[in-house]
């Protein structure tokens, strides 16, 4: 039983909106009743039909408002959908993406099978046509994403939206639009895979399931893929990683993905993703109220697999390795107990004071294993700490790095992808909080600066290369009952980071 991916057909067009022969043309209206350029074209062609409607007070242009018009005079499209854009001077990235999402959801709910959307023509400060189109494609796929194959009745629309045309304002912009379309689609596909993996409950999405999904992705795009089982990891000395999965009857898997798109001998970018398919906390059991969302604790690994899908679709010309330690953190007779001491692959010993701080225990061995690939840089992604959610909320991922140029490179990619990060301090001063009297370090550093001390723990295993860590605990999924679901972040950031490296 697989989630059905929506397959929309996208295209780019320039030309007069009043001459589009399609089911629906979408045009934007700013507050207070200011027509966007394509809306003005429609208004002119229809002898002021739109202005008249607006004067009547049916639509003010508030963000999120819509008005569907039938039989607009002298217009070839069956209908015109007006979408409110909010204040023109506040029309930034978020407003742009929200407007696209609002448009496509309305199109879906009104049964339009095809539409020409002119919102993509509206300039967003500091952004170009490629950006507008890429973001429009991603926002559309995001808005229409569904994960309902586990419900007995699917909520599929009777006449689903099938074809979307995004407008650019001049013919000369078509080729830049096409670049945005190609990127946007690959990224959207990567995001949707990451979402599916995240949303699949932990009774199905086990370490083994993730390994199979990684293998499927590898087969589809010609990646190398190696799955290390318990014994293989034991031979490598991954005592810290293996200790976490012991309290579960689901065997651990260490997934290795390899894309060799660059020259032989080019040092790879290594992406490491935390994949705890369910984090019950172990013997340091989590409270019941906070547990149901812990199937999303594999989101770092899911994002790596999603990013690989996009890498494959774009055929990126560089070498990338994906490392995904996957296991389940459960309480059982063989589970880690508070006070246990384990030896990591690096040889450093760890006193496990809280079995719920398991993410760092699996990542530290993956970071050591990354040395095998002689990496140019290593980036790890992990839903690592609740403290990160308290510090930054749901909008940026926390960024830590031991190398300023790498941090800037990531900040730049994150801004361009609109998949934002916020740099946090990685300072020696915090290391004292990890002291242990019996082992080389403890696995927790107390409540103050919880996301930072987790990063400091990982830093001890990333001394041999340039490294960055993204704490995605606040950004990887949306919580709550009705809107619960994976966001697929930070797939877009990762793909842009890699894309930028192929352009240099
Ligand atoms: N996976 C959790 C972090 C988490 C919690 C992410 C809530 C998103 C929402 C992680 O394994 C964990 O349990 N961390 C502990 C660390 C603590 C014991 C030092 C935490 O944040 O409470
Ligand atoms: Mn935990
Ligand atoms: Zn966890």
How would you describe the overall organization of this protein?
It is built from 14 helices and 21 strands. Strands 8, 9, 10, 11, 12, 15, 16, 17 and 19 form a nine-stranded mixed β-sheet that branches. 35% of the residues lie in helices and 21% in strands. With 504 residues, it is an alpha/beta fold. It folds into two domains: 9-188, Leucine Aminopeptidase, subunit E, domain 1, CATH 3.40.220.10; 200-502, Zn peptidases (Aminopeptidase, 3-Layer(aba) Sandwich), CATH 3.40.630. Strand 16 (397-401), helix 12 (404-417) and strand 17 (421-423) form a beta-alpha-beta unit. It has helices at 37-45, 49-55, 93-109, 129-144, 174-199, 207-221, 230-236, 239-245, 299-314, 359-370, 386-392, 404-417, 450-459, 491-503; strands spanning 9-13, 24-31, 34-35, 66-70, 79-87, 114-117, 163-167, 224-228, 253-260, 269-273, 275-279, 319-329, 340-343, 349-352, 377-382, 397-401, 421-423, 441-442, 466-471, 477-478, 485-486. The structure holds ligand BES, manganese (II) ion (MN) and zinc ion (ZN). The site of zinc ion (ZN) has 5 residues, from strand 11.
């Amino acid at each position: 039983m697989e989630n059905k991916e929506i397959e929309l057909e996208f295209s780019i067009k320039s030309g007069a909106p009043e001459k589009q022969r399609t089911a629906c043309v979408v045009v934007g209206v700013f507050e207070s009743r200011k027509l966007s350029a394509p809306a003005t074209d429609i208004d002119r062609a229809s002898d002021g039909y739109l202005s008249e409607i607006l004067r009547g007070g049916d639509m003010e242009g508030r963000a999120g408002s819509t008005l569907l018009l039938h039989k607009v005079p002298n217009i070839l499209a069956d209908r015109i959908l007006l979408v409110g854009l909010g204040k023109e001077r506040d029309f930034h990235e978020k407003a742009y993406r929200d407007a696209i999402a609002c448009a496509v959801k309305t199109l879906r709910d009104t049964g339009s099978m095809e539409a020409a959307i002119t919102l993509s023509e509206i300039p967003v400060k500091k952004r170009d046509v490629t950006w507008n189109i890429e973001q429009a494609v991603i926002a559309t796929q995001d808005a229409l994403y569904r994960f309902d194959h586990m419900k007995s009745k699917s909520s599929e629309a009777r006449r689903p939206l099938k074809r979307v045309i995004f407008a650019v304002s001049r013919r000369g912009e078509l080729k830049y639009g096409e670049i945005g379309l190609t990127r946007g689609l690959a990224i959207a596909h990567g995001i949707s895979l990451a979402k599916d993996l995240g949303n699949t409950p932990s009774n199905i999405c086990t370490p083994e399931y993730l390994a199979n999904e990684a293998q499927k992705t590898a087969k589809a795009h010609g990646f190398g893929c190696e799955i290390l089982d318990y014994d293989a990891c034991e031979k490598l000395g991954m005592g810290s990683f293996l200790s976490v999965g012991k309290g579960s009857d689901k065997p651990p898997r260490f997934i290795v993905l390899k894309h060799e798109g660059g020259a032989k001998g080019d040092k790879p970018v290594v992406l490491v993703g935390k994949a705890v398919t369910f984090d019950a906390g172990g013997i340091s059991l989590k409270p019941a109220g906070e547990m149901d969302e812990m199937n999303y604790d594999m989101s770092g690994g899911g994002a790596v697999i999603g990013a690989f899908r996009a890498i494959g679709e774009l055929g990126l010309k560089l070498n990338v390795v994906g490392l995904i330690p996957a296991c389940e953190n459960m309480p059982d007779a063989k589970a880690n107990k508070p006070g246990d001491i384990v030896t990591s692959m690096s040889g450093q010993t760890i006193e496990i004071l809280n079995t719920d701080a398991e993410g760092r225990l699996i990542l530290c061995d993956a970071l050591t294993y990354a040395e095998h690939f002689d990496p140019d840089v290593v980036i790890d992604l992990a839903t690592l700490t609740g403290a990160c959610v308290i510090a930054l909320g749901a909008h940026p991922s926390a960024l830590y790095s031991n190398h300023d140029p790498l941090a800037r490179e990531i900040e730049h990619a994150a801004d361009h992808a609109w998949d934002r990060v916020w740099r946090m301090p990685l300072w020696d001063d915090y290391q004292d909080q990890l002291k242990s009297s019996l082992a080389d370090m403890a696995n927790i550093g107390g409540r103050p600066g919880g996301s930072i001390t987790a990063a400091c723990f990982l830093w001890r295993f990333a001394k041999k290369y340039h490294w960055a860590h993204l704490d995605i605990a606040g950004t990887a999924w949306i919580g709550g009952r009705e809107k619960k679901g994976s966001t697929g972040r930070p797939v877009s950031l990762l793909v842009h980071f890699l894309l930028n490296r192929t352009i240099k």
